[in-house]
Amino acid sequence: MENTDMITHILNQAFDSINKGIMIQDINRRVVFFNRACEEITKWSRADIIGKDCGDIFLCHTSTGMCLTEKFCPGMEVFHGGTSKGSRELLIRRGDGNESWVKMSVSPISDTKGKPTHIVSVIEDISDVKRFSDEVIRSKTLSTLGAFAAELAHEVKNPLNAMNIQMTVLEREIQDIKKLSGKSKKELLEIASIVRKELNRLSGFVEECLHFSKTGELNKSAVDVSDILSEIVSLLLPQAQLQGIQIELDITNRLSRVLADRDKIKQAILNILINSIEAMPDGGMLHVSAKCIGHEIWISCQDTGSGIPDESKDKIFNLFYTTKDGGTGIGLSFAQNIVQAHGGVIRLEEAPKGSKFVITIPTN
CA–CA separation, 139 vs 330, rounded Å? Predict the structure, then answer.
């Protein structure tokens, strides 16, 4: 009996030392084991959950808001013979009242006859990874929309200008036709006026598209670049660590506040750093620094990836130009538009290894 107690004690200690959540439930979905990592991830204590139905505690649901009843629970799927193993991303209610994304992988524990008696769930907090994915999707969507708007505007603008010129000529011709009665002439001019109004409306729409493609209207305020960089690094760190990438943030002195659109400047820097992370699939180092030089803030982003080929360095800011498989060639162009709209400059500089981008933003 002593040996059994000792083994149980060792197993409990081992499970508590694991950084992934381990939860065991019986066939009625009641929790019989809940390790320390589960407590940290879910913010529920063992006292809160042992002996209870986990569904009543976590209120699990999917990204579409669908509540996972017993029918859809990955653990119950195991018991009902649907799968030998189940894994699903779930949004759970935490003990502190907030919600978190978790990945739950479920496996059966069977008796000697092969009949499942318990299920063991391995729980991982993926909130930061989901947040990173959402930001990447948002970044690429905005970039794509901006590029599409620019292409659409350029394609439509010249024909509209030509039509406007032709409408002017047509109106003059109508005025000069002597055989037309006053009433007919008036009706034709009214029709021409309607067409011109619609052309003007479309021209206004085209200008809005061009405006959007150059990052749209700037909502400027006094912003702290240090805070923006800290937010971005916090966002990127979980994904970077998964890829074996270290991120160093170096802010050498107190940065002056800049008058800028906080969200758009953040988007521009984020685009650059996402590119850097994607350039290091096998791991590496991403060094981000910021300092005041004269009346400018210099932001440096340097990675240790494979770098950009010499023949591509003059083209990387061109819309739709990319050296990456599956790349859109939009992110750098979009970032450049944002920086230039703030009166700044973004450039690629020589680096001993990888790529180094420098963004300068005026402080006055």
Answer: 10
Q: What is the pLDDT of residues 242-287, one digit of tens each?
A: 788 899 998 877 788 888 888 888 888 988 898 888 888 888 899 9
Question: How would you classify the pairing of strands 245-251 and 284-293?
Answer: parallel
How far CA 90 is from CA of 50, 61, 62, 285, in Å, comes to 20, 6, 5, 32
- What is the spatial distance between Cα 161 and Cα 165, in angstroms, rounded to a whole number? 6
In angstroms, how far is CA 56 from the centroid of its own chain? 32
Q: Are residues 147 and 192 in the same domain?
A: yes
Q: Which run of H or of E encompasses 145?
A: helix 127-176
For 330-363, letters b (16+ CB in 10 Å) and e give: bbbbbbbbbbebbebebebeebeebbbbbbbbeb
Residue in 236, 297, 303, 238 with CA at minimum distance from that of residue 270: 236
Residue with tokens 């620094």: 289
Torsion 76-80-83-84 (CA) sign = positive
Same structural domain for residues 113 and 153? no
pLDDT digits (tens, 9 = 90+) for 93-104: 898 988 888 888
Q: The whole model's pTM is what?
A: 0.50
Number of compact structural domains in the chain: 3
Domain that residue 179 falls in: 131-213
Q: Are residues 225 and 195 in the same domain?
A: no
